[in-house]
Write a structure and sequence with these properties.
CATH topology of the largest domain: Multidrug efflux transporter AcrB transmembrane fold
CATH class of the largest domain: Mainly Alpha
CATH superfamily of the largest domain: Multidrug efflux transporter AcrB transmembrane domain
Largest sheet: 5 strands, antiparallel
Radius of gyration: 30 Å
Shape: elongated
Length: 751
């Protein structure tokens, strides 16, 4: 592989105009496609194989035209102090608001509070339910404006009015902190390379890759039913890996220049060695993201595949466009150790003052990576214990992990959705915000109404039930819906227990009457979704870690190194989950991270972090350990190989980790709670994995294992293909004088 990528890098360097033109053309085509594509609505949320989804599908079949997936709104009214909603003036205001809402072009129905018994017992709070014919994200701006205007008119009449539901839901706006993340990345790159040109290359190529990826997602969003979160995730991961992959190749290019090679040869060798690591690092990320399909939740599958596509684009750009741009940059990208005009003045002055001896002493002085690796090699046991115990302590809060999906109760108190949620809880109890919909399919029953009555009576006798509404039948009279109001909030364990109790009771009723009892509704969907994710976590972990383990055996030609990599990943992801629990569930440092409401951790967070963090963690493993193995393969002792690997790669890995943390941290400022939590979780996971696991635990373990770390059974060594990530083939070719064969280069150029 190294030889092929070496030739590819040299070809891109020589044919830089052609390569740049291809990528600019692709960016233009993707941009035009995104601009001309129809705007995408909300991504449909389905959970195949769950009871809640079966009930939802049954409702659409038996209650046609009911707009089961249509948007909803609850307009909540509260009377002024000392008044009630049943007072004549207040009642007239509400009825006028209901009439105005009913005139909406996309409105299916509006329930009058006084006819639907939607007034609290103390008479101070009432609500009107509005149902639309299209999902909330697809509502026209005119419909949203009409909803808000109707509420404002009631406020002007003296009532407190808040609006809940998904009708006001819009695509979340990008946070300005994302720009800050990019700015931090730019500063780190300038410090790392000492040159604006060298620092600008990774940023430019990453932005082009993300631009192509996100534009393609936008262009296909309507056709493939992709939600707004899909492009956000693709942008988040694409920026991080795009900058990192380009950073590693540019850094290796500068190192090759420092060894005296000409620029074309340096590009080829950088692409052959660092590019090989980029390919395998990208493969681990792609495996982890595409593996989300194991969960069998269409939304997650689409998010994973879209993000994986962006990673593939980042790899291809790193292997082709980065060498091409290095050709354009020419001498403006300096060899390693030689700073540009920005940061090189101090060094030049010092060298001038100290003469040649001073300059040589500065060049030979061990860098921070060398000093740190030497310390770890001397004290491996202490470093290993400190790292493991530290991550173990950080992981402790994960033992209290509670999972759920965000609802209006997790919104900031400044939003009308959250205030409507609180008013409904005040007037009708906490369970009113999470009603359960019980669907009774009595088509096979001899006495459908008797079966429905039996179900209703059975539910009334269960604990934690406040209200059971009269059944609503379809036209055929063989299917009914019953709304159940719990006594606890939607995300509580008590509500989850009630769902299971209704289902258990339904099993007995089915045996007696042949009527099927199904529980659905938003709350039940969330419970089933969480359960499905929990059930899929172990199979997903086995699949992803297993495939990546085999891939790393191929890369490192070792059994213990991939095993150590996988165990280190588990430590970092558990510690990151512990941090997420501490901040978003317990409320530690909540104000610092803009968490206005604590609650259960998002259901998809554990499995999502396992997938994404594993892929990103293997990036650093591949980049760092391949350099260590390269030194070992070239004859150095195991301990010295660790020091050599850190001397060449620690600075770059550190810069890459800081950049990735900055990019992910930029999404913590997002308004959507899911994006905020993902940004924080990925940022803290990279922090733990890069600086504790890869920079401390990995060298400590390698120092303790010595030559054993690189042991591989002879039969397996013979069976595995040699992918030559270390570039040993390039060294052999160079010794044989083949690295500059012009005939071979011209043949490749024609191809």
């Amino acid at each position: 592989m190294a030889t092929f990528l070496y030739k590819l890098g040299r070809l891109a360097f020589r044919r830089r105009h052609f390569v740049a033109l291809i990528w600019v053309a692709l960016l233009t085509l993707a941009g035009v496609g995104a601009a001309s594509a129809p705007s995408a609505g909300s991504s449909s949320f389905s959970i195949p194989g769950t009871e809640a989804q079966k009930a939802f599908d049954l409702l659409e079949q038996r209650f046609p035209g009911g707009s089961a997936d249509g948007g909803t709104a609850r307009v909540v009214f509260k009377a002024p102090d000392g008044e009630k909603m049943t007072d004549a003036a207040n009642k007239a205001t509400v009825e006028k608001t209901v009439a105005e809402l009913s005139d909406g072009s996309e409105v299916v129905s509006v329930a009058d509070p006084y006819k639907a018994h939607a007034v609290s017992k103390d008479g101070t709070i009432a609500y009107a339910s509005v149902r639309y014919e299209v999902p909330g994200m697809e509502l026209k701006d005119a419909s949203r404006d009409a909803l808000e205007d109707a509420g404002q008119q009631a406020r002007d009449a003296g009532l407190t009015v808040e609006i809940g539901g998904d009708a006001l839901q819009t695509t979340p706006e990008a946070a300005s902190s994302e720009i800050i993340g990019l700015a931090v990345a730019a500063v780190v790159l300038v410090i790392t390379f000492g040159s604006l040109i060298a620092a600008g290359l990774p940023l430019l190529t990453a932005l082009i890759g993300v631009g192509i990826g996100v534009s393609v997602i936008t262009a296909l969003a309507s056709a493939l039913d992709l939600g707004s979160t899909t492009s956000t995730l693709a942008m988040m991961i694409g920026l991080a890996v795009g900058i990192d992959y380009a950073l590693f190749i540019v850094s290796r290019y500068r190192a090759e220049l420092a060894e005296g090679r000409d620029r074309e040869e340096a590009v080829g060798r950088a692409t052959g060695t660092a590019g090989s690591a980029v390919v395998f690092a990208g493969l681990t990320v792609v495996i982890a993201l595409v593996g989300l399909a194991v969960v069998n939740v269409p939304m997650l599958t689409k998010m994973g595949v879209a993000a994986a596509g962006t990673v593939v684009i980042a790899v291809l750009i790193a292997l082709t466009m980065v060498p091409a741009l290095l050709g354009y940059a020419g001498r403006k990208v300096k060899p390693a150790g030689e700073k540009g005009k920005l940061l090189g003045r101090g060094k030049k002055a010092a060298a001038k003052a100290g003469g040649e001896e001073g300059e040589k002493a500065a060049a030979d002085k061990p860098n921070m990576g060398t000093r740190w690796a030497s310390f770890v090699v001397r004290r491996p046991v202490a470093v290993l214990l400190l790292g493991v115990l530290g991550l173990g302590a950080a992981a402790l809060p994960a033992t209290s992990l509670e999972l759920g999906l965000p609802d209006d109760g997790s919104q900031p108190t400044s939003t009308t959705q959250r205030r409507a949620y609180d008013l409904l809880s005040e007037g009708f109890g906490p369970g009113f915000n999470g009603p359960l919909v019980v669907v009774v399919d009595a088509k096979a029953s001899d006495a459908p109404k008797n079966a429905v009555t039996e179900v209703s009576d059975e539910i009334k006798g269960l604990k934690n039930v406040v209200t059971v509404t009269p059944p609503t039948y379809n036209k055929s009279g063989d299917t009914a819906t019953i709304t159940v109001i719990p006594d606890s909030k939607p995300s509580s364990v008590s509500t989850e227990d009630l769902v299971h109790s209704i289902r258990d009771a339904g099993t007995g009723i089915t045996a007696e009457t042949d009527a099927k009892v199904l529980v659905t509704g938003t709350t039940a969907m969330n419970i089933d979704f969480s359960q499905k994710l929990n059930d899929a976590l172990v199979p997903y972990l086995i699949l992803v870690v297993g495939l990546a383990f085999l891939l790393l055996i191929l890369v490192f030609r070792s059994i213990l190194v991939p095993l150590k990599a996988a165990l280190g990943f588990l430590l970092s992801v558990l510690a990151a989950l512990g941090a997420v629990v501490a901040v978003f569930q317990w409320g530690w440092l909540a104000d610092l991270f803009g968490v206005q409401e604590t609650g259960p951790v998002m259901s998809m967070m554990p499995i999502f972090m396992v997938g994404v963090v594993f892929g990103l963690a293997m990036d650093y493993e591949v980049f760092l350990v391949t350099r260590i193995r390269e030194a070992y393969v070239h004859g150095e002792r195991p301990g010295q190989a660790v020091v050599t690997g850190f001397r060449h790669s620690a600075r770059v890995v550190t810069a890459a980790a800081i950049i990735m943390i900055a990019v992910f941290s930029g999404f913590i400022g997002a308004s959507e709670s899911m994006v905020k939590m993902i940004g924080f979780g990925l940022a803290i996971a990279v922090l733990f994995d890069a600086f504790v696991v890869r920079m401390a635990i990995v060298p400590a373990v390698l120092a303790l294992l010595g030559k054993t770390a690189w042991w591989l059974p002879k039969w397996l060594d013979r069976a595995l293909p040699n992918v030559d990530v270390e570039g040993e083939g390039l060294r052999t070719d160079a010794e044989a004088g083949k690295d500059t064969d012009p005939d071979e280069d011209r043949t490749l150029a024609r191809v």
